[in-house]
Amino acid sequence: MICHSDDHLVEPEDACPECGERRVDELIWQNDEDEQVRCATCGFVYIPPCTQRRKEQCDADATE
Predict the structure, then answer these.
(1) Which terminus of the chain is more solvent-facing, meaning fewer CB atoms within 10 Å of its CB: N or C?
(2) Taking Cα atoms as reference points, which of 11, 40, 37, 36 lies closest to residue 26?
(3) If pLDDT is split at 50, 70 and 90, which confidence band does 58 have?
(4) How many Å apart are CA 46 and CA 38, to the nearest integer?
(5) Is 13 helix (H, G, I), strand (E, B) or coil?
């Protein structure tokens, strides 16, 4: 997740899709998968779009 350093918020598209939480301290990467995030505010577990962006970037880097 990309974080705005000024206010410690993730990008809007990486926010919790259930409740909209954007605070970095409330969005917890799960240790077992490292792709899933659990929202501490509502408990929802999701795969944020930044995970897909990171995979696409790694794939692009590998083909160069």
Answers:
(1) C
(2) 40
(3) low
(4) 7
(5) helix
Per-residue b or e along 4-20, where b marks 16 or more CB atoms closer than 10 Å to that residue's CB: eeeeebbeeebbbeeee
HEC string of 15-58?
A: CCCCCCCCEHHHEEECCCCCCCEEECCCCCEECCHHHHHHHHHH
Task: List 28's β-bridge partners, or say none.
Answer: 38
CA distances (Å), origin 12, targets 23, 49, 62: 10, 10, 28
Distance of CA 17 to the CA centre of its chain: 11
